[in-house]
Automatic annotation (TrEMBL):
Lineage: Eukaryota, Fungi, Dikarya, Ascomycota, Pezizomycotina
Identification of the protein by name: Tat pathway signal sequence
GO terms (BP aspect): mycotoxin biosynthetic process
The organism of origin for this protein: Hyaloscypha variabilis (strain UAMH 11265 / GT02V1 / F) (Meliniomyces variabilis)
Family matches, as InterPro entries: UstYa-like (IPR021765)
UniProt xrefs under Pfam families: UstYa (PF11807)
Membrane-spanning intervals of the chain: 30-53
Alphabetized UniProt keyword annotations: Membrane, Transmembrane, Transmembrane helix
Family statement drawn from the similarity comment of this UniProt entry: Belongs to the ustYa family.
Length: 268
């Protein structure tokens, strides 16, 4: 049975106003300082760590490891971890005896991808000057360019062809680079050797190769497949370059030098 005093207690409203009056009040100046401090902290964290959120890591990486390029606005350059498979006794198609199948494998990765056109604003950002060759102004004034990775792959392929165990095969074919006389082919190969040396030194790989032992052998061997690498996704870059190709007849787009064009005394 409920007593009358208990009923009156249950019906009595709680003194919320008194509670508010008793709560601790901070000076408005302190509240302002706290708000500013949190805002500043948020800004600092946003500026300092914002670029490192997963969605922006690839963009940050390409910005720090490559010169400006028209590709960065047209291709979403992404990265992935990859184990190399260039083992000492491997059977990669790229290292097999000369044959049409081997040559086609090299063609497929882009060794003969050539000239593309780049708009003037993108070319300027990539360091191309107004003196470099463009299409006629009435045709758009775009710049003729090559994507460097495909020149580098072309060079590697030429070094493969000029190796003494491959040279006779390609010399007898007399195609591509071998339509030229031997001293020109050699000059071309020397250029390629130096171009690849520069590239390797420029992008010096700081990964490390571990060593393993092999049964019945008293020495250690580098374990090539065990070294992980962070690689740009090559296929996206290759497909973009393929879509932009002008084809082998691109010289038809050339016009006579205009005032201000770069005209050298010898081939660079």
């Amino acid at each position: 049975m409920v007593h009358e005093d208990e009923v009156s207690l249950l019906e009595e409203s709680y003194p919320w106003n008194n509670l508010k009056q008793k709560s601790k009040r901070y000076p408005r100046s302190l509240e302002f300082i706290i708000a500013v401090a949190f805002s500043s902290l948020g800004f600092i964290l946003g500026v300092g760590f914002g670029p490192y959120w997963p969605g922006r890591l690839d963009t940050l990486c390409i910005a720090r490891t490559a010169m400006p390029s028209p590709l960065t606005s047209d291709v979403k350059v992404s990265y992935h971890e990859q184990l190399f498979n260039s083992t000492l006794f491997g059977t990669s198609i790229y290292r097999q005896e000369p044959s049409p199948e081997v040559d086609q494998a090299w063609v497929d990765i882009g060794v003969y991808l050539g000239v593309i056109l780049v708009d003037a604003d993108k070319a300027t950002k990539a360091g191309i000057t107004k003196g470099h060759i463009t299409t006629p102004p009435e045709a758009g004034g775009q710049y003729f360019v090559n994507v460097e990775v495909f020149h580098q792959l072309h060079c590697l392929n030429l070094l493969r062809k000029t190796n003494y165990w491959n040279h006779d095969y390609y010399s007898k074919l007399g195609e591509k680079e071998f339509v030229n006389e031997d001293h020109i082919v050699r000059m071309h190969a020397d250029h390629c050797l130096d171009a690849l040396r520069e590239q390797l030194m420029c992008t010096a790989d700081i990964g490390v190769l571990p060593y393993v032992r092999v049964k019945d052998r008293d020495r250690a061997y580098p374990d090539f497949p065990a070294a992980p690498h962070m690689c740009r996704t090559f296929e996206d870059i290759r497909e973009w370059a393929r879509e932009q190709q002008l084809g082998s007849e691109w010289t038809e787009f050339l016009h006579d030098p205009q005032p201000g064009d770069i005209v050298l005394d010898q081939i660079p």
